[in-house]
Design brief:
Shape: globular
Family: Belongs to the peptidase M3 family.
Structural class: mainly alpha
Keywords: Hydrolase, Metal-binding, Metalloprotease, Protease, Zinc
Cofactor: Zn(2+)
InterPro entries: Pept_M3A_M3B (IPR045090), Pept_M3A_M3B_dom (IPR001567)
Order of helices and strands: HHHHHHHEEHHHHHHHEEEHHHHHHHHHHH
Distance between the termini: 40 Å
Pfam families: Peptidase_M3
Strand order of the largest sheet: 3-5-4
Radius of gyration: 23 Å
Helix content: 55-70%
């Protein structure tokens, strides 16, 4: 029987030796690489040495970051991470830039097919590099970390209880409308209490991000971020077209869907506490599915599911369970988000979650473990650290596709009726997610390319309200303080990873396409999935999509076709 490692095992996995948290641990190796005589024939071996060093540095950064997220209330742990980011990372950025320039200057060097794409990325990144942005990047990271600390220590007071955010959100899914409303109001009261702090952080971030763009001679932060994210396969105009396509094709479908649910429940209108895009109300008023109670039970449920899906995937997940690569329980002082991090030296992914026992937790675990599989497979196949994972336009496909590929392997954990409900939630979730993704992306296009130089918090609130009325017109806010609604932009990605959100929509569309193929030939679809993951970061985004069995498209016609398929599946 597989046992769940203790929290102490997780702490051991995240341990970083004191020496590896200091620049002196890496400086000699960078210096040796810089001093090496380098001819075209020497490049492959030299790249391997650089990759090994980069993997060690990245691994230390990932472990310190994750450890800080597990202990947002521990000043010493926070300071250790911040010191690393302030003292080690800037030196590493300068050293990496010097090595990049050395590589690009090698006469006669022509990269092989497995490195050609990243060689081009190295060239583009070197052109974007500015010395002034190294120190400014430290400031930027410190501002981002302020958001992590503020939200990681957030508590929600409901009656006599003090809850974590995930625990409070769980209550907003209650079939009891009064309980939903009470939990929603308590959560919003907590959000409003810390809103001034987050507003201040955001204004600081906007100023810093605009300065990063100016330092790099870019017109605005969107243009800067486009290059930083290596978005070469599509332009901002296509994102704006996506927003319009979602407004035209998905918002009406979602409005009809939630309208039908409201009518079946006898609700006169859909109030904010009646709408959760991750878990639409059950039309029969049933309690939310609770397939497990503890993190250990969720791990066991997932293990059985992967055993039914694929032996190798099951073995990978078992490795994570047995070696301290999962931390699922919700605890005070723990960051409330869910994610998968990666330690490249050992080719190990790490999943952090905050589970409370819901079916949504099941979906999120499959999602994050899909990321973990991406790390495992690309790490196995690609020796160079830069060739692992993938461009961000593909990186959510392994995770979102896993949400779908596991759908037909849950009968051990759910009854036929429960499985039908879970499956329906998954399909509804795609429809409900797309308007949110379009709204998130549209807000950032406005903020970083159109908003006035003297943009205020009131401007941010007003723009969010405008967009929310466009993409979620079916939610009835009458009689409520729309100042609460206006703070919807207080969201993780807006603060932490600007412009990283439309990728979720692209990948959800592709995941639906993969699932459509899997309905016809499950084995072939799974093999394409694995093959695409092994390609890592060595081919372009459109090529990765084709390898997985999908199209790199998010235009109106394509969206209309996939929405039609989902409508059919929903009956």
């Amino acid at each position: 029987m597989t046992t769940q490692p203790s929290l102490e095992a997780v702490e051991r996995k995240l341990a970083v030796p004191a020496a590896d948290a200091q620049w002196d641990s890496y400086a000699p190796e960078f210096a040796a690489l810089q001093a090496s005589d380098l001819t075209a024939q020497d490049v492959p071996a030299w790249l391997e040495r650089w990759s090994t060093l980069s993997a060690r540095l990245q691994g230390s950064a990932s472990k310190l970051s994750t450890h800080a997220d597990l202990h947002t209330d521990d000043d010493a742990i926070q300071q250790r991470y911040q010191t690393f980011m302030a003292e080690v990372i800037p030196q590493a950025e300068r050293a990496n830039q010097a090595l990049t320039e050395k590589l690009l200057a090698v006469p006669g060097y022509v990269p092989g097919p497995d490195f050609a794409l990243n060689y081009r990325r190295f060239r583009d990144a070197a052109a974007l590099f500015r010395e002034a942005n190294v120190d400014l990047g430290v400031t930027h990271n410190q501002q981002i970390n302020r958001h992590s600390v503020i939200t990681g220590n957030q508590k929600v007071r409901l009656g006599d209880e003090e809850l974590t955010v995930p625990q409070a959100k769980q209550l907003t899914d209650s079939p009891d409308r009064q309980q939903r409303e009470e939990a929603w109001r308590a959560l919003q009261a907590s959000n409003q209490a810390m809103a001034p702090e987050l507003d201040a952080v955001m204004l600081d971030l906007i100023g810093t991000r605009r300065q990063l763009a100016r330092n790099a001679d870019e017109a605005d932060f969107r243009a800067y971020r486009w290059k930083e994210l290596d978005r070469v396969d599509y332009a901002p105009a296509q994102c704006l077209d996506f927003h319009a396509a979602v407004q035209g094709e998905v918002v009406p479908l979602l409005s009809d869907l939630v309208g039908d649910i409201a009518r079946q429940l006898g609700l006169g209108s859909l109030r904010p506490w009646d709408y959760n895009r991750n878990n639409l109300l059950d039309p029969e008023g049933r309690e939310s599915l609770r397939p497990f109670n503890t993190g250990a039970e969720l791990e066991a449920l997932a293990q059985q599911t992967f055993e039914r899906l694929d032996a190798d995937l099951a073995a990978r997940f078992r490795q994570m369970r047995e070696t301290g690569l999962l931390d699922l329980e919700s605890r005070p002082g723990k960051m409330t988000h869910a994610y998968c991090n990666y330690f490249p030296t050992t080719n190990e992914p790490f999943v952090l979650m905050n589970v409370v026992g819901t079916a949504e937790d099941v979906r999120v675990l499959f999602h994050e473990v899909g990321h973990a599989f991406h790390g495992f497979y690309s790490g196995d196949a690609q020796p160079l650290v830069w060739n692992r994972w993938s461009p961000i336009e593909f990186v959510e496909i392994p995770s979102m596709a896993m949400e779908f590929l596991t759908l037909d392997h849950l009968s051990h954990a759910l009854s036929a009726d429960e499985l039908a409900r879970y499956r329906r939630k998954q399909l509804e979730g795609v429809i409900a997610f797309l308007p949110w993704a379009a709204q998130m992306d549209a807000f950032q296009h406005w903020l970083y390319a159109e908003a006035p130089q003297d943009v205020t918090v009131a401007d941010l609130d007003a723009k969010w309200l405008e967009l929310d009325r466009t993409f979620h017109p079916f939610v009835d806010w009458s009689g409520l303080d729309e100042g609460i609604r206006a703070k919807g932009w207080h969201y993780y990605h807006i603060f932490q990873v600007p412009f990283y959100y439309i990728e979720y929509a692209m990948c959800y569309l592709a995941a639906v396409a993969l699932w459509r193929s899997a309905r016809q030939d499950p084995a072939a679809a799974l093999e394409r999935y694995k093959a695409a993951l092994r390609l890592g970061n060595t081919v372009s985004v459109p090529e990765l999509y084709r390898a997985a069995g999908a199209e790199f498209r998010f235009d109106r016609e394509y969206i209309r076709g996939l929405m039609g398929f989902l409508k059919e599946q929903l009956g």
